[in-house]
């Protein structure tokens, strides 16, 4: 039976993650808390809007209302990576070779490991940034589509048009597909080799959480009373195929998803704070956490694949050990 080690914090958890296998919880008020032989805390921002971890899980990168891009190590050491003045840094992403992307207003920046930065201006506000897993390339979610830049080279960006407000962005693990969350209750995708469109609609609510399965064959999403899991096994992705619907619970909405690092299993967090683990092959469910005080907002697996950190909108966070 899974065991839960709770951590009651005061405020909305933006990101729950592991740094060097230590659970970290970044809150919207700018405080970051972690569990390393007791609870430790540091103020990273005056209002935190976005936080992510590097692929090696050795560094947290965050952006805030104070216009700063900050880093935090598992030992609690903070550093300022960049500043955009009095504007808000609304999105951050970690890339290859120590590169970091961040966005504020209509601009996106890429900061390389040597400290050099490159700025990309857009006609409308940038809502999300992501690095491609292949090569030094970033995707920007914007109004009426997405833009792809090669930061290390000079050249014309690739524009992918689709009417509407695109609020978040992710590349498939093989780099072949780009998917955005939208202001409307939908996802939109492009097959990058030919810019073919993929429409993923029918959600009763906005999709705020996406997670790719280990080998990139599936994309799990929130925004419905089940985790909607789209198949990306064929060359055209999910087009013409029905998604899996996992962990259906009446009218209780799924608010967060986190695919297992190596197996076709997804952790599903709900608006009432419950967390389930569900297997893709047979939809078998395991209860990981009973309902809590607030909606699950973020989840992350550790390197050993046995612990799951979770955060909620009410600050009731914690770590689930699935081995008991």
UniProtKB/TrEMBL annotation:
Quote any Pfam family the record assigns. WD40
Query: Where in the cell?
Result: Cell projection, Cilium
Task: Give the primary localization class.
Answer: other
List the keywords (alphabetical): Cell projection, Cilium, Repeat, WD repeat
Q: Where is the Anaphase-promoting complex subunit 4-like WD40 domain?
A: 261-322
Gene3D superfamilies from the entry?
YVTN repeat-like/Quinoprotein amine dehydrogenase
Protein's recorded name: WD40 repeat protein
Tell me what organism the protein belongs to. Answer: Aminobacter aminovorans (Chelatobacter heintzii)
């Amino acid at each position: 039976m899974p065991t839960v080690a709770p951590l009651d914090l005061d405020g909305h958890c933006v990101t729950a993650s592991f740094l060097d296998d230590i659970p970290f919880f970044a809150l919207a008020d700018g405080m970051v808390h972690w569990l390393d032989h007791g609870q430790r805390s540091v103020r990273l921002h005056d209002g935190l809007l976005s936080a992510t971890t590097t692929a090696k899980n050795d560094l947290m990168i965050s952006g805030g209302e104070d216009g700063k891009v900050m880093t935090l190590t598992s030992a609690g050491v903070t550093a300022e990576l960049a500043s955009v003045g009095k504007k808000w840094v609304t999105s951050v992403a970690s890339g290859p070779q120590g590169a970091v992307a961040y966005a504020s207003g209509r601009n996106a920046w890429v900061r390389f490991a040597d400290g050099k930065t490159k700025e990309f201006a857009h006609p409308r506000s940038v809502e999300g940034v992501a690095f491609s897993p292949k090569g030094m390339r970033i995707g920007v979610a914007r109004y009426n589509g997405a833009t792809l830049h090669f930061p290390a080279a000079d050249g014309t960006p690739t524009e992918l048009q689709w009417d509407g407000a695109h609020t978040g962005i992710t590349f498939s693990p093989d780099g072949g597909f780009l998917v955005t969350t939208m202001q409307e209750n939908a996802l939109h995708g492009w097959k990058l080799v030919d810019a073919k469109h993929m429409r993923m609609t029918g959600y009763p609510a906005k999709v705020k959480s996406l997670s790719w399965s280990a080998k990139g064959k599936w994309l799990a999403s929130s925004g419905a009373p089940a985790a909607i899991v789209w198949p990306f096994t064929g060359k055209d992705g999910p087009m013409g195929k029905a998604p899996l619907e996992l962990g259906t619970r009446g009218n209780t909405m799924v608010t967060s998803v986190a695919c297992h690092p190596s197996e076709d299993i997804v952790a599903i967090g709900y608006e009432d704070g419950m967390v389930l683990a569900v297997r893709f092959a047979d939809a078998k469910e395991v209860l990981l956490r009973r309902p809590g005080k607030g909606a699950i907002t973020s989840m992350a697996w550790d390197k050993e694949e046995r612990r799951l950190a979770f955060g909620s909108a009410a600050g009731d966070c914690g770590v689930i050990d699935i081995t008991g």
